[in-house]
């Protein structure tokens, strides 16, 4: 314990086995590949959604046909071939990390096959104009790539599948948001619960390499630019507190709605959804299209452009439009399409902050918008550290660190009074279904004792 490390001894140990370095090189290569997959997903999503916007401007009423058709097609294809790709992607990785899940069932939630499917089906969701984000799916995309590295590693390697999944998920967040700190905190707060010493190097290396790939593609800039925050005094306390309370309550309600919808609670609509999922998706897609028409197209897609406009002082999401964006995002998730809620949550939170800024009639607009984004995202995910760091890095809001942290913590606390943790609850639901499907069906004694013979009519 008290012996000083011997440099030469450690150096000889490091250089003694070429297989160790080969394993490390494989992992590094897969980390770069994970970043490339996320960058490709981002570019494809942006390009396809740009095409949707041009299509909508040319033939706005046509979305009443195309959006339901594409949504129904996505759900049919997902259920038929890739059921593990449905939804956000974060619950799937949490399910794959769950101790109750048998190792042989992990492929149901993270694999290279699901990565490719997630990208294709997620891009199709943007082609339909659905209210989805790509950041949550990027977690499953990158984790699936990193998980694939396990088959090429040596049998006695110290790099286990769990560490690869955590590293991939963290790298996905870092590359999707161009926010490396958020990747580290996300790995601790959402995926692993703690950063083990033996896997911390792997996780940070994956984040760095995937982040470098993203920076090479998009530049070293913040997602929403740099916000100009005036000096925050006591006059900002009231509006800031109001934004936080509204965001916390709305985010808790949103999480509760999603849990009730996606765990198939015994209600009439969910029973009908379970029986006719494709028809339900078509009706949900039609509702999203109608909402998009009513709002002039503002609620289509992730909503990132609306946030940029609001930060520049333009009214993109009025209070009514914010409510409709809330509904459109919920309906999209309820349909079961592969798509995330991170970016739509940020736009909803921004709308809440913008509404309070107009109510207060002050120059605190950008600051209140940032507080709303951090508060609503923290309330939905109940991961306040990840939420405030994501927003801080996306708006370059280092001058608001304490304000964003306080808003995220308070909003998350309010949400916990309203709803169970969203991702944990969905992950446990998925694990329960996977474990039940893996257990052999036992014949009852009464049925086994019946003699074989023709049935009576």
Describe this structure in words.
- By secondary structure, this protein is mainly alpha-helical.
- The chain contains 20 helices and no strands.
- Helix 2 (18-58) packs antiparallel against helix 6 (135-148) and helix 7 (161-177) crosses helix 8.
- The model is unreliable at 441-457 (pLDDT under 50).
Short description:
The chain is mainly α. Helix content is 71%, strand content 0%. The chain has helices at residues 7-15, 18-58, 63-81, 90-96, 112-128, 135-148, 161-177, 180-192, 197-218, 237-262, 268-275, 277-294, 304-311, 319-335, 342-360, 365-381, 384-395, 401-418, 422-438, 445-448.
The strand count comes to 0
Beta-strand percent range: under 5%
- The ordered string of helix (H) and strand (E) elements is HHHHHHHHHHHHHHHHHHHH
Shape: globular
- Termini separation comes to 79 Å
Poorly predicted runs of 5 or more residues: 441-457
Helical coverage, percent range = over 70%
Average pLDDT: 85
Structural Rg: 23 Å
Derived structural class = mainly alpha
Q: What composes the largest sheet?
A: none
The helix count comes to 20
């Amino acid at each position: 314990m008290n012996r000083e490390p011997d440099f030469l001894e450690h150096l000889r140990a490091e250089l003694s086995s070429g297989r160790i370095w080969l394993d490390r090189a494989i992992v590094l290569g897969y980390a770069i590949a994970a970043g490339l997959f996320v960058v490709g997903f981002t570019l494809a999503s942006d390009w396809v959604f740009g095409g949707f916007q041009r299509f909508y401007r040319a033939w706005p009423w046509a979305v009443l046909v195309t959006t339901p058709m594409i949504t129904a097609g996505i759900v049919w294809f997902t259920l038929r071939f890739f059921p593990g790709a449905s939804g956000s992607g974060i619950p799937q990785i949490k399910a794959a990390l769950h101790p109750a899940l048998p190792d042989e069932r992990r492929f149901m939630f993270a694999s290279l096959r699901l990565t490719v499917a997630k990208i294709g089906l997620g891009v199709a969701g943007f082609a339909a104009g659905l209210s989805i984000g790509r950041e949550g799916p990027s977690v499953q995309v990158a984790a699936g790539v990193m998980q694939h590295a396990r088959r090429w590693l040596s049998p006695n390697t110290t790099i286990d599948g769990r560490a690869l999944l955590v590293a991939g998920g963290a790298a996905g967040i870092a590359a999707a948001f161009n926010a490396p700190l958020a990747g580290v905190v996300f790995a601790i707060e959402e995926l692993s619960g703690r950063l083990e010493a033996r896997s911390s190097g792997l996780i940070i290396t994956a984040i760095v390499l995937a982040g470098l790939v993203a920076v090479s593609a998009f530049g070293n800039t913040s997602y929403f630019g740099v916000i100009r925050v005036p000096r925050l005094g006591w006059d900002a306390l009231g509006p800031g507190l109001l934004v936080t309370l509204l965001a916390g309550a709305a985010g808790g309600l949103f999480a509760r709605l999603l849990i009730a919808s996606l765990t198939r609670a015994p209600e009439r609509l969910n029973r009908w959804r379970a029986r006719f999922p494709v028809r339900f998706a078509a009706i949900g897609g039609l509702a999203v299209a109608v909402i998009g028409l009513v709002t002039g197209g503002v609620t289509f897609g992730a909503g990132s452009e609306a946030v940029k406009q609001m930060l520049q002082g333009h009214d993109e999401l009025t209070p009514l439009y914010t409510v409709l964006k809330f509904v459109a995002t919920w309906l999209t998730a309820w349909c079961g399409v592969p798509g995330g809620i991170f970016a739509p949550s940020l736009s909803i939170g921004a709308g809440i902050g913008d509404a309070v800024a107009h109510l207060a009639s002050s120059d605190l607009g950008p600051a209140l918008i940032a507080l709303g984004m951090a508060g609503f995202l923290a309330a939905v995910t109940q991961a306040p550290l990840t939420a405030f760091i994501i927003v801080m890095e996306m708006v370059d809001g280092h001058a608001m660190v304490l304000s964003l942290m306080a808003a995220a913590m308070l909003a998350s606390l309010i949400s916990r009074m309203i709803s169970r943790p969203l991702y944990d609850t969905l992950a446990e639901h998925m694990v329960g279904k996977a474990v039940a499907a893996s257990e052999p069906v036992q014949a009852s004694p009464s049925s086994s004792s019946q003699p074989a013979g023709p049935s009576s009519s």
